[in-house]
Amino acid sequence: MTTETSGLEIKEARPGNIGAEIIGLDVNELSDHAPELALIRQLIYKNKLVVLRGQELTAERYVTFTRKLGRPQVYFQPQYHHPDHAEIFVSSNVIEADGKKLGVAGTGRYWHTDCAFEPHPLSFTSVYPLVFPKSARETSYIDMAAVYAKLPAELKAYVETASAVHEGKLRYKVQASDIDKSLAELLDRIHNEVPPVIHPAVIQHPVTGEKILYISSGFTTKLAGLTYEENQKVMQALFDFAEQPEHIHTHYWEEGDLIIWDNRPLVHKASSVKPGEKSKSYRIGIYDDLPFYVGINS
Question: In this predicted model, what pLDDT tens digit does every residue of 132-159 receive, in sequence order?
Fold first, then answer.
């Protein structure tokens, strides 16, 4: 569905799909209380993912915009931080003019929802690519509300009232300061920084009321109360069902895209980059300061 309002062209998702586009909006021009900010949030909740086309953002302007939309996150590991703006999480394999590389390469190439391994997960994720690889210009998503609605009864019975355990330690990226440390030491440290957390396996969205299967093969390690053998069988069946090709929506990036999605219903996965190709993007997590799900404090 396409509509026009205040000079903007808005293309919303068809029923059963995700993703809306906003064309003709320059986020650099928005005031702190511009009505377009409320519109963007409404479209995110309704369509789960919004693409703002044709943006030209410096690092500073990117941070400024996200502060107007919500509360920017500062990721807990500083090796990802932009040197001048800690709110910006840098994913890059590009060597800068001074001979240094910002951030970390090869991030997020597995199905996950950002910061599910924290007690208060991240509401929105926004991404603004700067350098595009030739072979991989996409990010893939799965709507876990739709997955839950389609879940076979025998699998739904396992998750309806269950709790899921989420862990981030196996996704830790080794950094220069880790030299001379054993794998055991590194695992112990990251375990202490972000110990396993428990969230309901099925959450309810605080705005839409949708029920969402809140698990991912990237971060969810087990369902509480099941034996090891049961977990191996049930978790694999859940992931296999969720990650079927017919459930996957792929966004193909264009220059100037700023994309924002709701981490409650969507899991996502970045595409791989071929050796020798350059890739660089900025990410800012945004808290909307609503409860992440019904029954948890924000």
Answer: 888 878 999 999 999 999 999 999 999 9
CATH code assigned at 263:
3.60.130.10
Distance in angstroms (rounded) separating the CA atoms of residues 138 and 271: 6
Q: What is the pTM of this model?
A: 0.93
Between vectors from CA 115 to CA 110 and to CA 117, what angle results, nearest 5°? 90
What domain range includes position 111? 2-287
Question: Which of 152, 153, 157 lies closest to 226, judged by CA?
Answer: 157
Distance CA 40, CA 60 (A): 20
In a domain, 182, yes or no: yes
pLDDT one-digit tens code per residue, 243-256: 999 999 999 999 99
- Domains of the chain: total: 1
Q: Does residue 297 lie in a domain region?
A: no
More confident residue, 110 or 295: 110
Encoding tokens for residue 18? Answer: 């995700």
Place of tokens 């970045």: 270
Give whichever of 15-19, 76-80, 110-114 has the largest mean pLDDT.
110-114
**Taking the alpha carbons of 44, 49, 53, 57 in that order, is the dihedral positive or negative?**
positive
In a domain, 138, yes or no: yes
In a domain, 296, yes or no: no
Buried-state track 252-287, b at ≥16 Cβ within 10 A, e below 16: ebeeebbbbbbbbbbbbbbbebeeeeebbbbbbbbb
Residue 298 has pLDDT above 50, yes or no: no
How far is residue 190's CA from residue 118's CA, in Å, rounded to a whole number?
12
The burial class, CB within 10 Å (0-12 / 13-18 / 19+), for 134 is: exposed
Average pLDDT over residues 169-185: 83
Separation of CA 157 from chain center: 27
Tokens for 188? 């112990």
